[in-house]
Specification:
Its main location: endoplasmic reticulum. It holds the Pfam family HSP70. Belongs to the heat shock protein 70 family. It contains 13 helices and 24 strands. Strands 1, 2, 3, 4, 11 and 12 form a six-stranded mixed beta sheet that branches. By secondary structure, the protein is an alpha+beta fold. The protein has a domain of 61 residues. β1 and β2 form a beta hairpin. Helices cover 32% and strands 28% of the residues.
């Protein structure tokens, strides 16, 4: 996404708009600051709740989850820029206590009861409420109006999802100067603050496993410090539907099986308050299993007055989520393969995202990299917002820090871009995935007008160039 004009408009902030939590940071003078919210927390739940009298965002909304589950919205990042008919959307809807319907354009609309009336909100509108909360948090802390922001997204967000995030920012009253990839932002933070100084080349792998997405990216320092020259992304990989929320869901399914085995009360499956309370208990147990090998999932009066309690071990948790852990490693291998880099050539493995605290994740990475010590020197929850704030400061022209003024970011396009060369959506790739951007490529094929370009420019999540298979493609420019 191209940068918007922003110079002269004061301090710009970096916002990590997460699936489960969001974070905002600012670069002032020669240092970055992660901004606490009105509760003193540096992370704000990406939740919005509606009641008969008002709307809550953040911590206040999170407090409504068990009391008002049908009108407390969370994980909306899994809807933004998607179609209602998408398989992943349909799978998520089965797990959410709130109602999601399709509009005439097949876009998901969230149905809530607000001030006694039924309302429908798009994912962009809900996200804008979270972004507005982050903007307000920054304004209170800085004591000034905040207009400009860099917002981060997962690497595998397509153009439709990125544009929808831009739209959410605009609705929130923000000038989104640029959308950047989450692991790229984290790597900026690591490169500026924590990476060892060396005159030799250095290869940094960022493994970002958050609340809802997995991002893996490989970054190359050609022999100058990242904070003094060109910052180049070599390759990216990931999954927009793999994170802490998915680990929680597997624990919820396990707990439901245990409840039904013990009590046979099928009605719990339609008890939204019970399911939401159970998910909260599972999330708490998951966190406990990062520091202990056994804990309990416990909910008083879960359903029909039954107090539910079951023991879960770390090994059982790992067994429940083995397929998800395997997907994590496949994404890592894909990133290295695309970059044509041997794993032994990686100098630093940087952990980002709250889910990298899971011991199984750390053990898999340590084993894959032959016992290499993992880099945990940056805060995994705050690194993305911190790096986005650095980039926002550069774009705004408000920084005079010598480490920042000459920094050049060279990211890559995560998805192949091409044109439709025939009927049935057969795609001819023009710009392969993991090409450094900005990039200018030409392909013989005659002269096209603007309308033809808008119709024919396509974006693919996967492409087999040798077989030229028919693919599920999205219109790149129109997000269709």
């Amino acid at each position: 996404m191209a940068a918007s004009s922003s110079q002269g408009d004061g301090l710009a902030v970096g916002i990590d708009l997460g699936t489960t939590y969001s974070c905002v940071a600012v670069w002032r003078g020669d240092r970055g600051e992660v901004i606490p919210n009105d509760q003193g927390n540096r992370l704000t739940p990406s939740s919005v709740a509606f009641t008969g009298v008002e709307r809550f965002v953040g911590d206040a909304a999170e407090n409504q989850t068990s009391l008002n589950p049908e009108n407390t919205i969370f994980e909306v990042k899994r809807l933004i820029g998607r179609r209602f008919s998408d398989k992943s959307v349909q799978e998520d809807i089965k797990l959410w206590p709130f109602k999601v319907v399709a509009n005439r354009e097949d876009r998901p609309m969230i149905v809530v009861k607000y001030k006694g009336e039924e309302n429908q909100f798009s994912a962009e509108e809900i996200s804008s409420m979270v972004l507005a909360k982050m903007r307000e948090t920054a304004e209170v802390y800085l004591g000034t109006t905040v207009k400009n922001a860099v917002v981060t997204v997962p690497v595998y967000f397509n153009n439709s999802q990125r544009q929808a995030t831009m739209d959410a920012g605009a609705i929130a009253g923000l000038n989104v100067m640029r959308i950047i990839n989450e692991p790229t932002a984290a790597a900026i933070a690591y490169g500026l603050e924590k990476m060892p100084v060396t005159s030799k080349g250095r290869t940094v792998l960022v493994f970002d496993l958050g609340g809802g997405t997995l991002d893996v990216s490989l970054h190359i320092d050609r022999g100058f410090d990242i904070d003094m020259g060109v910052f180049e992304v070599k390759a990216v990989a990931g999954d927009t539907h793999l994170g802490g929320a998915d680990f929680d869901n597997e624990m919820v399914k396990y707990s439901l099986r245990e409840f039904l085995r013990k009590y046979g009360k099928l009605g719990i499956k339609s008890n939204q308050k019970a399911l939401r309370r159970l998910k909260t208990a599972c999330e708490r147990a998951k966190r406990m299993l990062s520091s202990t090998t056994q804990t309990t999932i416990e909910v008083d009066s879960l359903h029909d007055g039954i107090d539910f309690c079951t023991t879960i071990t770390r090994s059982r948790f790992e067994e429940l989520n083995k397929d998800l852990f395997n997907k994590c490693m496949k994404a890592l291998e894909k990133c290295l393969q695309d970059a044509k880099i041997n794993k032994n050539s990686v100098h630093d493995v940087v952990l980002v995202g709250g889910s990298t605290r899971i011991p199984k994740v750390q053990n898999m990475l340590r084993e894959f990299f032959s016992g290499k010590e993992l880099c945990r020197s940056i805060n995994p929850d705050e690194a993305v917002a911190y790096g986005a704030a650095i980039h926002a400061s550069i774009l705004s022209g408000e920084t005079y820090d010598g480490r920042l003024v000459d920094m050049l970011l060279r990211d890559v396009t995560p998805l192949s871009l091409g044109i439709e060369t025939g009927y049935d959506y057969v795609m001819s790739v023009v710009i392969p995935r993991n090409t450094n951007i900005p990039s200018n490529k030409t392909k013989p094929g005659g002269r096209l007008g603007k309308k033809e370009i808008e119709r024919m420019a396509l974006e693919a999540e996967s492409y087999n160039g040798s077989r030229k298979r028919k693919l599920a493609l999205r219109s790149y420019w129109r997000g269709k």
